[in-house]
Amino acid sequence: MAAADSEKLEKVKREAQVLREWLVRSDASLARSRKVSLEPDAPELVRAFWEVVPFSKGYELAPQDVASGRKTVEKVLNSWRRTSRGYDLTVDDLPKPFRLVSRTPEALLLTDESAREPDPPVVMLAAPEGPVDMPLKTVPFCSSYLDYVATALVGYVLRGFHSTTLELHGEPALEMPLPTLAPRVLRADEHLWLVPLSPGTTQGVRRARFDQFASFIQFMAQHRSQVQTLLTGQAGVIVLVRGLEAGAPTLTSEMNVEAMAPGKGSVKNRFGFLADDLPVWVQPAGTSYYPDLVGIATDRAHREALLTWIRERGFPVVGEGEG
Question: What domains lie within the chain, and their CATH numbers?
Fold first, then answer.
C-alpha cells in the first residue's frame, strides 16, 4: 500500500474535522453516529477520513467497508445477469480490491484500489440496457474518492438550502473551504455555496445553494459577467402574480435591480430589492391564458413581507409554491 504524503495526511484530517463539525451542526444525531469499520489495509487517506467523519444511512452513499459493498455488488450483478441476455460480468471482473461508493438504478460507483493508492479513483459500472453484445467494463468517473465523498457530504449539509443551476464562464474567485478534500466546492459566505452539479463532475455547470436571497443577489451582482445562463427555474418561495409584468413601472420604479441574467429561451431574470431590503428574484411566467403572469421569489424569512408588498398594491396572487 502506497503511503500518503505526511503533509496531505494532516490536511485531510483537518478538513475532515471541519466537515464533521458542519455535519453535526446540520444533524445533531450524527454526533452519536457510529464510525465506519474499515479493513486493516484500507487506503491510508480513506481511513484517515472515516476515522473523523461520522457515517449515516441518510447519506447518498453505500456502507463504505469492502465486505458490505462486495455483497451488494454481487446481488446487483446477479440481477443484471438474469434480466439482460448476454451479460456475464461478475465481481471477479471488477478491480481488486474495490469498495462500493454509491448505488443508483442506473449504475454502481466503485473505488479501484488495485494500484494501492492512498486516495483511490472512483469508476462507474453502468447498468445494462437490454441484451448485451459486447464486453462491459468500468469507466473512470472521479479521480479522487475523497473528492467524491466529501462533495456528497457537503450536499447533505446543504440539503435544506434553496438550489438553482448556473452555467458559468470561468471560475468565480470564492473561498475553497475544503481545498484538499473537495476543491470544487466554493463558498461566498455561510449562506451561499457553489457545488458541482453532482459529485465527481467537472464541467462549468454549478449548483448554487443558498438559504438567504440577499447572499444570492450579491453573488449575482458581483459575478454577473461569469453567469452565462440560469439552467433551472426560480428557487425559494415563489409567488405568482397577475397584472404585474416584470418591466411594469410599478415594479421597476420600486425595485433596485442589482443584476440581470438570461434563463432558458428568452426569459430575463431580475435580481434585486423591493422596499430597499426585500430581496427578490423576478421572472416572467406568462402563459397563453395569463400573459401578464410574473413569478416573484424570495427566501422563507421574507415571505410575509413579499405578500404584504403585493397586497398593498392590489395585485392578485394566482398561486404560491417553493422551488
Answer: 6-147 (no CATH), 161-223 (no CATH), 237-322 (3.30.70)
